Inverse folding.
């Protein structure tokens, strides 16, 4: 079991542990660590080549392939952390909800959860079927041997529940909110079941070598602060605490979270992932400086000329102001068509940045 979270080294050596994990724990680092949401994906030729021969789910289920995709992306970009190649929806299958990715439409779940009976039918005893993700993590951990941080991940209870209920993506989350408001007992049972499976799933990932777990609450921005407080907060907090008890830091990330940041931070997550809509310093103030932050470049800025890109990257780094506990990232995932060389340029910009070093053009 990892002991990263609880260590308090009296003489803190900057070179102890990797800089990504150190930043998650708000320890000083030699330079700001950087990685990217969706750093392995369709924008990268190497991924598209693998996808010619395999479906997304096949890649996830074959540890050799998932590890290869993870490692290739991290090495090509020169980032400080590798996120395991998997998908948010993988835990649905062992719970009894098969799904598929339909070209151009995203995920489709054939038998959505809509009633208390549907919730009762969900299984919580087969998380071990997700062992293929753990085996992929083991391969990645062996490959990097501690050089890079290794990130395992899962969906947050609210976001996973809303996928199960809506049968895919949604604009207004009407079915989700109908169950939440109309049968709160069934809603809470659903979240309880999801937490059981996700806790086991995260345990597999941590035991296999994940240094940090990121919890994606991608759809949380569909909730008001009051609804988050009454219907989602407790479940997220329980999952955060359960993972921290395994000895690893937790990054909790959502999208369109400006008003939700203070309450998301009170889950106790070590790091809050900020979306790109708010200046980083305002977001950090909202989560509190006792928490680390990750973010928060608009992913579409990666399509801009390098001088514009550099201006935005430096603004974010200046907003962090050298305070320990900043991990540079995007405010949401890289989209298909993003120029890989611009992503690599951002890594160089972040690694070369020094506060008070305003004039130097690092992309030259
Ligand atoms: O390097 C990485 O980050 C890749 C690993 C990864 C994937 N999915 C692979 C994937 C991660 C971290 C995810 C998380 C994920 N999956 C989220 C949360 C992140 C976020 O963006 O908020 C969500 C909401 C999902 C569910 C999901 N998976 C959707 C909605 C889609 C379809 C959207 C699309 O872009 O087509 C997927 C498919 C998916 N998962 C792809 C990848 C690389 C698309 C590429 C493909 O089909 O090969």
């Amino acid at each position: 079991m990892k002991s990263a979270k609880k260590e308090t080294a009296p003489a803190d050596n900057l070179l102890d542990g990797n800089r990504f994990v150190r930043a998650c724990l708000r320890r000083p680092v030699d330079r700001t660590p950087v990685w990217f949401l969706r750093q392995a994906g369709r924008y990268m030729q190497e991924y598209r080549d693998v996808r010619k021969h395999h479906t997304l789910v096949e890649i996830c289920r074959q540890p050799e392939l998932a590890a290869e995709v993870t490692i290739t992306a991290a090495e090509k970009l020169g980032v400080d952390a590798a996120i395991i190649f998997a998908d948010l929806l993988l835990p649905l299958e062992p719970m009894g909800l098969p799904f598929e990715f339909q070209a151009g439409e995203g995920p489709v779940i054939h038998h959505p959860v809509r009633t208390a009976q549907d919730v009762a039918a969900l299984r919580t005893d087969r998380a071990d079927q997700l062992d293929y993700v753990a085996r992929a993590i083991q391969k990645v951990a062996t490959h990097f041997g501690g050089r890079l941080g290794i990130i395992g991940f899962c969906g947050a209870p609210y976001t996973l529940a809303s996928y199960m209920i809506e049968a895919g993506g949604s604009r207004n989350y009407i079915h989700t909110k109908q169950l939440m408001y109309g049968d709160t007992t069934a809603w809470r049972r659903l979240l309880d079941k999801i937490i059981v499976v996700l806790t086991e799933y995260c345990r597999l990932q941590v035991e296999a070598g994940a240094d940090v777990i990121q919890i994606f609450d991608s759809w949380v921005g569909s909730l008001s602060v009051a609804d988050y407080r009454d219907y989602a907060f407790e479940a997220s907090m329980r999952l955060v605490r359960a993972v921290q008890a395994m000895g690893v830091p937790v990054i909790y990330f959502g999208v369109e979270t400006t008003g939700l940041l203070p309450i998301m931070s009170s889950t106790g997550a070590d790091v809050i992932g900020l979306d790109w809509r708010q200046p980083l310093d305002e977001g950090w103030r909202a989560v509190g400086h006792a928490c680390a932050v990750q973010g928060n470049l608009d992913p579409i800025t990666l399509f801009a000329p390098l001088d514009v890109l550099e201006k935005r990257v430096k603004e974010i780094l200046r907003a962090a102001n050298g305070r320990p506990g900043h991990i540079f990232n995007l405010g949401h995932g890289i989209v298909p068509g993003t120029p890989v060389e611009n992503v690599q340029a951002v890594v160089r910009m972040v690694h070369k940045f020094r506060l008070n070093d305003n004039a130097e053009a690092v992309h030259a």
